[in-house]
Design brief:
With 59 residues, the chain is mostly helical. The chain contains two helices and no strands. The chain has helices at residues 6-22, 26-52. Helix 1 (6-22) runs antiparallel to helix 2.
Amino acid sequence: MYPDNWIMWQIYNLSKIVQSIMILNIANVIKYVFYLFNAMLGYITWKDDKKKGTILASS
């Protein structure tokens, strides 16, 4: 389910980063950068697993 809407979550994370920068909330900037980084690693893993055939492609 999450790989299907991955790009929407990245847009959400980026918007939250911008919002947190605008209100100078550094803790939230760090939090959402961490989420963004983890999501990118997850996407690479899913993409690799899909190539190997260990997970089924979504329909």
